[in-house]
Amino acid sequence: MGTHRLIYIRTDGNAKIASGHLVRCFSVALACRKLGMEVHFLVSDSESRLLLAQLMGSDTDFSITQLETASYDSLEQELPEVLSILSSHNFDSSLPSGRTSSGARKPVFLLDSYYVTEHYLLSLWSYAQTAYLDDLRLFDYPADLVINYDVIPEDQMASYKTSYANAGQLLLGASYAPLRSQFQNRQTHLREKASDILVTTGGSDPLHFCLRLVSQIADLLQTSNSSCAQNHMLCAGKNFHIVIGKMNEDKENLYRLAKELPFLTLHENVQDMADLMSKCDLAVSAAGTTLYELCALGIPTISFIISDNQLDCAGAFDRANAIPCAGDLRVSADEVFQKIFQFIEDTAALSGDSCAKRKAMHHRMTGLVDGNGAARIAHALFCLCSSEKQTL
Predict the structure, then answer these.
(1) Phi and psi of 280, rounded to 5°?
(2) Which of 31, 123, 198, 325 satisfies CB 3.0 to 4.6 Å to 314 for a cystine?
(3) Sorting pLDDT into bands at 50, 70 and 90, what band is 259?
């Protein structure tokens, strides 16, 4: 292997756990490659392998090994196979600076799985420099490096550090969000007039948010009721761009409505989401990774909640005064839609005041997430290759 830096990335993605782990790990892998690191992926099943290969496209610089003994939800059973792979580097613990007996640097093992155990990480200790990508804080992970890109208020940072006492090094906060390369070093310039609004719920829309929103807008534009006059004027002249996820059950109804409603444009199988976002002035989005992406571009956004795993994310961005949350659609749908229309009124009206509000939001968002988290993580992994083991 020579003296180059080697990294194994162990992660999965399938219908049950979605593809988020694969996407963020691939972003880190691309950044590692730019630093000259050799990247090898380890996955548990053919579905993970296929999804990862699709992300890579024609890129052949990365290898993918499908472990023969692995299961995405039971990491312990793969340990002998993983340790066999790592031990092939003939590491001699008596050699300095984490080098193998052949002179190569000790490999790094980056793990991104919710099914990690303390025993699994400790078992890797003699074979690799270990890094763990976390967002659950399930226990105090014994690893050389722990990454958590939660939006962390200043008054909670000490608590986060305490919960990771076993980590040799910590990368904490939203600046370490490993976003896709299309969101790196790319910010939008706010237009004086806000006319295009992005709407996204992610891969699915179980509560039919998009269909309900479109129906309400159509009703507002057709009504002559004076009590709706304000929202009528608000929606007039706006273009709503709805991203249809692969599992959106309302696809046919939305396409039917799009033929009748000139203000509605549908987008499916979007390859460059950053480009689409950059063409919009505002966004209405379900909470999740999308909020980090919108922050990196500085698109003024309001979020809403459609599942339990979005509660913390939506609340964190709201408390950071970066992205307000309209609420939980499962609990108070009327209130959610009311707050969304109010947000559009406050930020898209034809007034200098609205433009100033959007500029302020843009500044706060890009100050929180700049899109370069993957590069920061890769740099830490690069440095980890040459570091000495720290004592637990």
Answers:
(1) -105, 155
(2) 325
(3) very high
| Residues 231 and 319 sit within 8 Å (Cβ to Cβ) | no
Distance of CA 146 to the CA centre of its chain: 17
Say whether 282 sits in a helix, a strand or coil. Answer: strand
The distance of Cα 92 from the centroid of its chain, to the nearest Å, equals: 38
Cross-sheet strand order for the sheet of 38-43: 63-66, 38-43, 6-11, 108-112, 129-133, 145-148, 169-172
- Six-digit token string for 77: 């059973």
- Spatial CA neighbour of 323 closest among 273, 277, 364: 364
What's the CA gap between 168 and 279, in Å, rounded?
Answer: 42
Cα 141-180-23 angle, rounded to 5 deg: 55
Q: Is the pLDDT of residue 236 over 60?
A: yes
Strands 239-244 and 264-268: parallel
Cα end-to-end distance, the chain, whole Å: 29
Contact criterion met (CB below 8 Å) for 209 and 304: yes
Nearest-Å Rg of the Cα atoms of the chain is 23
Alpha helices in 35-117 (DSSP H): 46-56, 79-87
DSSP per-residue string spanning 361-378:
HHHHHHHH--S-HHHHHH
Supply 258's token pair: 């799009």
pLDDT 10s digits, 301-323: 999 999 998 999 999 999 999 99
For the chain, the residue count is 392
In eight-state DSSP terms, residue 44 is S
What are 4-60's pLDDT values in tens digits?
Answer: 689 999 999 988 888 899 999 999 999 999 999 999 999 999 999 999 999 999 888
To the nearest 10°, report the CA torsion of 345, 347, 353, 357.
140
